[in-house]
Amino acid sequence: MAGWESSENNLTGVSGLVSPELKLKKYKEVYPRLKRLFIIYEKDNPNTAIEMEYLLKAASAKGLKTESLKVADVEDLLKLKDKKYSPGTGLFVPISPLVEQNISHVISAAERHKLPLMVPNEDAVKKGALLGLVASHYDLGVRAGRMAAEILQGRDPADIPIEVPKNPRLILNLDTAGYLELKIPGSLLEETAATY
Amino acid sequence: MNKEKLELLAPAGKWEVMEAVIDAGADAVYLGSKKHNMRMFRRDLNFTPEEINAAVKYAHGKGVKVYITVNNLLFDEEMDELEPYLLFLKKVRPDALIVQDLGLIKNIRDLGINLPLHASVMMNIHNEPAINLLKELGVSRVILSREISLEEARNLYEATGMELEYFIHGDMCVCQSGQCYHSGMVFGESSNRGRCKKPCRWNFDLWDRSKERTLNLSSGKKHMLAVKDMCMLSFVPEMAYSGICSLKIEGRMRTAEYLKRVVSAYRRALDRYYQDPTGYTTSESDWQELYSQRIRDFSSMYAFNNPGPSSIGYGGEREPRFFSHAIREKEIKEEDIAGGIFEDLGEGSKKINHPLLSVRVGNIKGMLEAIKGGADRVYIGGETFISSGGKWSLADLQYALDYCRDKEVEGVITTPRITQGKEVPRVKELLSRAVSWKPSGIMVGNLGTLQLARQLKDLDIYGDAYLNVINTFSVEQLKKLGVKELTLQPEIYYKHSFLLTKKASLPFEIIAHGPLTAMVMDHCVPAALLHGSSWWEVCNYPCREGKLSLMDEKGLEHPLEVDENCRNHVFLGREVALLPFMKPFVKAGIGSFRLDLRTCPWEIIASLTELYRKNLDFIKKYPEEYWFDMEDWRKLKKLCPDVTFGFGGYLKGVKSKPDKGEKNNSIEYSFKLIKSK
């Protein structure tokens, strides 16, 4: 695809990628002590690579230092447990199917070191990660359906911009927030789509 | 451990039965007068005052104790009528009075009557702090809740030293004792006043309301709440070691012949046990004798553990009689609203100028919406329902209270209605932390949590409906114990509640909207039927796979929700909605209107709360000009398309006696209408 505005070919659609800039903004609001991002991501996954590109730029723009763990198999995740983390570190998992499927290792490392963890799906928050800013798959489906209808009515896919999630859902795990002794302002609570 | 020999306690509904059970070897008998006691189905049963006097003399002459049942919940007018009877009992000097009503305990002591008091099973005593509270009130024996195991009984005895009595034989309830409002709300015949019409014996289908289908069960599994009869004959050594002091046989309506056999069998068993405790075995012939004359099949119920499906007589073929059939609960129609179905009884002496709007919610999201909709107070914590996404962790509660403080809304922490076994330390932990969170108060639903809340300083205590307060004596008793506000019991006819509200020295809240719990049970229906287990066994949680209801013979769905402790809550078929009827309630001095929105999708909580807020504000501001806009009713119905609304027990509920010209609704009358199976 040539770009978000137009694929310049016969492709269009909606992406589930929530802007990393928005994610980091929200991360900082929930965890104001955040100074350094420890990113745990899947090696050689093209979707991960796209998010990583935007994520690193956004982190740099926000003055956050970054460090990362490139995960090739589950064994790599075990390293998280014994690692030393600087004060102000927050763990971050971008879209990474391998890591997401084995998220319990990351969650237990976060718990052990009393660190916040941001994840790309709601289920991981339910399991104990601190927060997620995730796309509404219902909303994505509706919008993709509308695009399909337009194409069926004759519109060229190249003329339909590729869309990103609008109003992504903030998911918070309050038990984890309590464990991290965070203060959660009322405005943030009101913003949540779900809490666990 | 209690080293005394176990007392064998038998019921007596009339003189010849008393003679028979004493002949058969009862150590004590319990009986009641023709008024103010639980078993009042038949006029030929129970004792006149003269008979009571003679019975006490007769039994004492045989070395047998007599306990008199004064074990009803009582309205104020009945409490007044009771005074001469209590003074008569003082003279007769039975060995104890069995009581259920908290107010009666106060009344008895205020009258200078120092007879020993036994707390009825209907007081639902199931934890140590509750026993300690009753000890403080002068109760000398507790008849334990039927869900208590022998092991728990032993622990309770060791912790409190209280005399403990335990049901060992006969008819049982599926619902927690004193907590069943189904019969009262639907028929106006209260289980808590000895007039239960036993809706738990109806047949039901198990209905998945999320998929709108009946779940296929093995054929004949229709009577899914019909518990078997209890029989503990085989477990005499276990009972002797349990810390209980008295073995109670159920059946004040049973015949002399039946009870003589039951009492004799247990007498022989106890005698043989005490002659040779180590060599004791159950007598096959005694067992056969009981088994052959059994009414329903037998179960040891909760004596050893939650019995699960083994305690239910699913086929219903051994039910001796059905006291009622399912009925269509009255649905609120627009003509009821237009006709002002609740009579305006005028203002009471205690006028509440600013009744509050309180909302009970199942999770923090629900709380945010309730506050958005205009709630003055939110109830957070307590039991929530799994299929409705309920969750209150300690962290949730803390964040919720911070939010309430910011918004200047009262945040009251609720505690579970039943607090048994491992749930007690959890509530203790919650309350110890709650002190530092500074909630606006703690709501309690049983005497144990009340006792725990009393230990905390500077926290207001709110009493939930399940304390069964229906007279001013109970109000005064609870006020003395530190309660600041109470909740009307939902099975009581509204005029009685209005009278109570007007006379009481504490404000009352009313459950104005939401599903009303008809029964709360330790028996888990989905586990028993869909998995074949009880909650103590490994369970695959079929309750989490859908939203279940019990569908009665009239096709009315009674939603069934499972809480985090696996307790089952069966609701009335229709949710109560007093939205159109609030004005007479405000005039009667109701202190606050509670919306119970724990089962409500969070998306509609704000809009629903707003409807009540709007009407309450209108009534407060323009009490004379207020009129209900039917559009609000239509909005409410549109918000809740899957729900039908009714009157709870407020309209057809429990009265002290039927109004003039009202149809006889007695059990005797019902017998004529319902064919015996």
Strand count, sense and barrel status of the largest sheet of chain B are:
8 strands, parallel, barrel
Helical proportion of chain B, percent range:
25-40%
Distance between the termini of chain B: 46 Å
- Per CATH, the architecture of chain A is 3-Layer(aba) Sandwich
Helix/strand class of chain A = alpha/beta
> Over the alpha carbons, how many angstroms does the gyration radius of chain A reach?
18 Å
Q: Could you please say which CATH topology of chain A applies here?
A: Rossmann fold
- Name of the level-1 CATH class of chain A: Alpha Beta
- Strand runs of chain A, count: 7
> How much is the average pLDDT of chain A?
96
Poorly predicted regions of chain B are 663-677
The overall strand count of chain B is: 26
Question: Biggest interface and its residues per chain?
Answer: A-B, 14 and 15 residues
The gross shape of chain A turns out to be: globular
Radius of gyration of chain B: 25 Å
Strand portion of chain A:
15-25%
Structural topology:
The complex is a heterodimer of chains A (196) and B (677).
Chain A (H helix, E strand, L loop, with lengths): L19 H11 L5 E7 L3 H16 L3 E7 L2 H4 L1 H4 L6 E4 L4 H5 L1 H10 L4 E3 L2 H6 L3 E4 L2 H16 L16 E4 L1 H6 L6 H6 E4 L1
Chain B lengths: L6 E5 L3 H9 L4 E5 L16 H13 L3 E6 L5 H17 L3 E4 L2 H9 L6 E3 L8 H9 L2 E5 L6 H11 L2 E8 L11 H6 L17 E4 L4 E2 L14 E3 L4 H5 L5 E4 L6 H20 L8 H9 L5 E2 L34 H5 L17 E5 L3 H9 L4 E5 L12 H14 L2 E5 L8 H15 L3 E4 L2 H8 L6 E3 L8 H9 L2 E5 L6 H10 L4 E7 L2 E5 L3 H7 L16 E4 L5 E6 L5 E4 L3 E3 L4 H6 L4 E5 L5 H20 L8 H10 L5 E2 L20 H7 L4
Parallel strand pairs in B: 1-2, 1-11, 2-3, 3-4, 4-5, 5-6, 6-7, 7-11, 10-12, 13-14, 13-25, 14-15, 15-16, 16-17, 17-18, 18-19, 19-25, 24-26
Antiparallel strand pairs in B: 7-10, 8-9, 8-21, 19-24, 20-23, 21-22, 22-23
Task: Summarize the structure in words.
- Chain A has helices at 20-30, 46-61, 74-77, 79-82, 97-101, 103-112, 122-127, 137-152, 174-179, 186-191; strands at residues 36-42, 65-71, 89-92, 117-119, 131-134, 169-172, 192-195.
- Chain A has 196 residues and is an alpha/beta fold.
- Chain A has one domain: Response regulator (Rossmann fold), CATH 3.40.50.
- The radius of gyration of chain A is 18 Å and the shape is globular.
- Chain A starts with 19 loop residues before the first helix and ends with a strand.
- With 677 residues, chain B is of the alpha/beta class.
- Chain B has 22 helices and 26 strands.
- In chain B, 54% of the residues are buried.
- The interface between A and B is medium-sized, with 14 and 15 residues.
